[in-house]
C-alpha cells in the first residue's frame, strides 16, 4: 500500500500551532488537518474504493461522534442480548475505526483496503477531502458554542490546560483540528440537501430532544428499520451516556470521551462577549444556512 500524498501536497503549506504544539496543523485545501494525519488522509482519499453497503460516519470533533458510533454499530449488528452487546466490552471508537487515525496505526487490526464488506467507518475529514466513491454518510454536528466548550474540556484533559479565552480565539480562527467548523458543517449540510440519499445530517441537539425519532431516522437511512418501540428503547439504553461512561471498558483511558452530554452547556462557561465573537466568526454562516441559531 503506498501513499499518494504527493497528489495533495503543495510545496510549503501554511502551518499552525494547536494547544501549545508548534506546527501541529497544516492547511490543506482550506482545512486545518493534524500534520501527523496528512499522509493517511491522502491515502484514504486517493486509494479507498467504497463498495455497496459501506457506511461512513462523519463529524467535526466533539459533536457526538461517540454516540453516533454506538447507535450505528448497534443498528447494523442488532445484538440479541446484553451478552452479545459489543458495547459492553468495547469503547465505540474501538468498534468503528476513524480512518485517518487507523490507517497507519501499527496496533490496529483494521485494514480499510480489506475486501470484506460491509464496513462501518468514521472520519473527521471534510466532505471535499473524501474519496469520490463514498456514497452513504451519516454526519453529526452540534452548536458551535457547545462544540467549543466540549473541545476545551477534552484537550485540557488529554493535552494540558489552556485558558478558555485562548480556546475561543483558536476556534474562531478556524485553526483547530479539521476546522474551520462552519465550513466543515456547511459542506455536509449542503450535500445533504442536494443528495439526501447520500448524506444524512444529524444534529446532536435533535438527538437529545427526540432520541427515538433520531434513531428511527438513522435506521431508515442505513436500511435497517427497527421493528418495535422496545427495540428503539433498547438501543438508546445500550448507547446512553449514563451506561457507557460507567462501563469498566470506558472508565480509564477512554473516559475523556464521556462528560456531561448536555445541550447549551457552553452557556455555563462562555461570557456574552465570547458568544458574540463565536457568532460573528462561525455563527453567521451557519445561521444563513438555517442551522443552530
Ligand atoms: P460534552 O463535552 O458536552 O459532555 P465526540 O464523541 O464527538 O468526541 O463528542 C463528545 C461529546 O459527546 C461530549 O459532550 C460527550 O459527553 C458527549 N457524549 C459522549 N457519549 C455520548 C452518548 N452516549 N450520548 C450522548 N452524548 C455523548
TrEMBL record:
Using the record's annotation, list all stretches that form the Sulfotransferase domain: 52-289
Organism, scientific name: Salvia splendens
Q: Which family does it belong to?
A: Belongs to the sulfotransferase 1 family.
SUPFAM superfamilies attached to this UniProt entry: P-loop containing nucleoside triphosphate hydrolases
One matching Pfam family, short form? Sulfotransfer_1
Give the domain of life: Eukaryota
Record InterPro entries: P-loop_NTPase, Sulfotransferase_dom
Q: Provide the E.C. number(s) assigned to this enzyme.
A: 2.8.2.-
In its UniProt record, a GO molecular function of this protein is: sulfotransferase activity
Q: Which PANTHER family match?
A: SULFOTRANSFERASE SULT
Report biased composition (Polar residues) as residue ranges. 1-13
Q: Where, by residue number, does the polypeptide cross the bilayer?
A: none
- Identify the keywords attached in UniProt to this record, alphabetized: Transferase
Q: What is this protein called?
A: Sulfotransferase
Residue numbers spanned by region Disordered: 1-20
Amino acid at each position: 500500500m503506498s501513499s499518494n500524498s504527493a497528489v495533495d501536497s503543495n510545496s510549503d503549506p501554511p502551518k499552525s500551532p494547536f494547544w501549545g504544539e508548534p506546527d501541529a496543523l497544516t492547511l490543506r485545501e482550506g482545512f486545518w488537518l493534524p500534520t501527523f494525519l496528512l499522509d493517511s488522509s491522502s491515502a484514504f482519499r486517493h486509494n479507498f474504493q467504497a463498495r455497496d453497503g459501506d457506511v461512513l460516519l462523519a463529524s467535526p470533533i466533539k459533536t457526538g461522534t461517540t454516540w453516533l458510533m454506538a447507535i450505528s454499530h448497534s443498528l447494523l449488528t442488532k445484538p440479541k442480548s446484553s451478552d452479545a452487546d459489543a458495547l459492553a466490552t468495547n469503547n465505540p471508537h474501538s468498534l468503528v475505526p476513524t480512518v485517518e487515525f487507523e490507517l497507519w496505526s501499527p496496533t490496529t487490526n483494521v485494514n480499510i483496503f480489506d475486501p470484506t464488506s460491509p464496513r462501518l467507518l468514521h472520519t473527521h475529514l471534510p466532505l471535499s477531502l473524501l474519496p469520490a466513491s463514498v456514497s452513504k454518510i451519516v454526519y453529526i454536528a452540534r452548536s458551535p458554542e457547545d462544540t467549543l466548550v466540549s473541545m476545551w474540556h477534552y484537550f485540557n484533559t488529554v493535552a494540558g490546560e489552556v485558558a478558555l479565552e485562548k480556546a475561543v480565539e483558536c476556534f474562531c480562527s478556524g485553526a483547530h483540528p479539521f476546522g474551520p467548523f462552519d465550513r466543515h458543517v456547511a459542506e455536509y449540510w449542503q450535500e445533504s440537501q442536494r443528495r439526501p440519499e447520500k448524506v444524512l445530517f444529524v444534529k446532536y441537539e435533535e438527538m437529545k430532544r427526540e432520541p427515538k425519532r433520531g434513531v428511527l431516522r438513522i435506521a431508515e437511512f442505513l436500511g435497517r428499520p427497527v421493528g418495535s418501540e422496545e427495540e428503539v428503547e433498547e438501543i438508546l439504553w445500550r448507547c446512553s451516556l449514563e451506561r457507557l461512561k460507567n462501563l469498566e471498558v470506558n472508565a480509564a483511558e477512554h473516559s475523556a470521551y464521556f462528560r456531561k452530554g448536555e445541550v447549551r452547556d457552553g452557556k455555563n462557561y462562555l461570557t456574552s462577549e465570547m458568544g458574540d465573537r463565536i457568532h460573528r466568526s462561525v455563527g453567521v454562516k451557519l445561521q444563513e444556512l438555517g442551522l443552530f441559531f
